[in-house]
């Protein structure tokens, strides 16, 4: 497998894992915040909605950026 493809796959995996890591630690988060697990689960919903609503906006705003620069900026953030 080419190194570039491997790095792209690793970056995609990291971004996907990062976006759903809260679901795995929902119990400790709810205990720390002093709320029920279903109430803390709304954090995942709010995050997913924000992600879904802002993705097209950010895609439009960054459409003129060179793809390499955009990908590297996204991975750094």
Q: Could you explain the architecture of this structure?
A:
With 77 residues, the chain is mainly alpha-helical. It has one domain. The protein is built from five helices and no strands. α3 crosses α4. The radius of gyration is 16 Å and the shape is flat.
| Helix/strand order, N-terminal first | HHHHH
The total count of helices amounts to 5
- Ranges where pLDDT stays below 50 over 5 or more residues in a row are none
- Count of discrete domains: 1
Give the structural class.
mainly alpha
Which percent bin holds the helix content? Answer: over 70%
Number of strands: 0
Largest sheet, in brief, is: none
Cα(first) to Cα(last) distance is 26 Å
- Beta content comes to under 5%
Write down the overall mean pLDDT.
87
Shape: flat
- The radius of gyration computed from the alpha-carbon positions, rounded to a whole number of angstroms, is 16 Å
List keywords for this structure.
flat, transmembrane, 77 residues, transmembrane transporter activity
Layout of helices and strands:
Elements: H1 3-19, H2 21-24, H3 26-33, H4 37-61, H5 67-76
In short:
It is found in: Cell membrane. The protein has about 80 residues and is mainly α. It is about 85% helix and about 0% strand.
């Amino acid at each position: 497998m080419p190194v570039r493809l491997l790095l792209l796959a690793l970056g995609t995996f990291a971004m996907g894992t990062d976006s759903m890591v809260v679901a795995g630690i929902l119990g400790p988060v709810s205990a720390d915040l002093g709320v029920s697990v279903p109430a803390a689960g709304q954090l995942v919903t709010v995050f997913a909605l924000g992600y879904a609503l802002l993705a097209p906006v950010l895609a439009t705003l960054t459409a003129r950026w060179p793809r390499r620069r955009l990908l590297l900026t996204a991975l750094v953030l």
